[in-house]
Amino acid sequence: MIKPFDPWRSPLCTCPMKWVIHPYTGCSHGCLYCYATSYIPRHNIVRAKDNFIDNLKKDIYKLPKGALVEMSSSSDPYPSIESQYNLTRRALIILLSQGFKILILTKSSLVLKDLDILKKFRDQVVVSITITTLDKTIASQLEPGAPSPSERLKTIEMLIQNGIKVTARIDPIVPFINDDFNIIKKLITELGRRGVLQVTSSTYKAKPDSLKRLIIAFPHIGKKLLEMYSKEQAENINGYRYLRADLRYSYMKMVKELVEDEGMVFASCREGFRNLNTPGFECDGSSHLYTA
C-alpha cells in the first residue's frame, strides 16, 4: 500500500524523497487536465482498495522512522465515498500515531471531517489545497466534479483557524483558460489573506487525451491550444508536450512575484526553474513540516 513516490520518471521533478499511499483508485473530480487518465484505466471511477488498512499496517514497518508520506499523488484521498469507507481517516490515525509526517494533497472540503485528528497531530501534517481559479464558471468546466473555488477557500480558512499548516497549488495554469493576470492576482491575494504559507504552481503539460478534453470543453480557444502544444511549438519532455521554456518561465515568474508580494513562499512544479523557487523550500510544501 505504501510505495516510493514515482514522478513518472520526470527529469524535472524536484520533490524530496517521500512515500505515497492511495486509499482509493480513481478520482471523481473529472479534471480535464488530469495526467493520470493516461496511465490508469477507468480513472473516473473511484474504487476503495481491497484490504487497504490490513495491508497498510503491514507496510508501515518497512518505512524509515518519521518518514514523509503523501496522500495522494494521482488520486484525491477525499473522494465522496470516503464518507462511507473512512480509509483516509483510518490511515491518518495509524500513520500519525506511529510518528510519520503526512502531506495531504486534495481539492476536497471533506478533509475537514478529520479536523480532530489533524489538530491532535498538527506538527506532523501539512495540507495542500489545489485551486486553479476563482472564476466559478471556468472551474465548473475545468474541474466539473470538484468543490467550488469558494468552498475550497473556506476549507483553507477553517484549517488555518485550527492551527493546521496549509499550502496551495495553482496547478496547472492552462493558456487562455485560467491564466488571466487579474484573476490569478486576486486568487493569490485571497490565499495570502487567509494565511497560506506557500503557493506552488505549474503550467499545463499536454497528453493527447487531456488536450482533447480541453478543446471540446473550450472550443473557442481550441485552435490556439493546438498551436501552442503542437510539435512545432511545444517541447517534448518525457512523453508530455510542454509549453516553450520562455512561456513557462514568464508564467512562473509572474506567479512568483505575486506570491512573494503577499509574503508567501513560492515554488514551481516540474518546470526546471529552480532559480525561481524560494531557497530552502520544497515544491510539495513538505518543508513546512520541519519549520516552526
Considering the chains and any ligands shown, give keywords for the structure.
globular; 33% helix; TIM Barrel; alpha/beta; 292 residues; 10 helices; two-stranded antiparallel ribbon; 12 strands
Q: What does this entry look like structurally?
A:
The protein has a single domain (2-272), classed as Aldolase class I (TIM Barrel). It is built from 10 helices and 12 strands. The protein has helices spanning 52-59, 82-85, 87-97, 115-120, 136-142, 149-161, 181-194, 208-217, 222-228, 245-261, and strands at residues 2-4, 19-21, 24-25, 47-48, 68-71, 101-106, 125-130, 165-173, 198-203, 235-237, 240-242, 265-268. The strands form 3 sheets. The chain has an 8-stranded mixed sheet with strand order 1-2-5-6-7-8-9-12, covered by helices on one side. α1 packs parallel to α3, α7 (181-194) runs parallel beside α10 and α8 (208-217) runs antiparallel to α9 (222-228). The radius of gyration is 18 Å and the shape is globular.
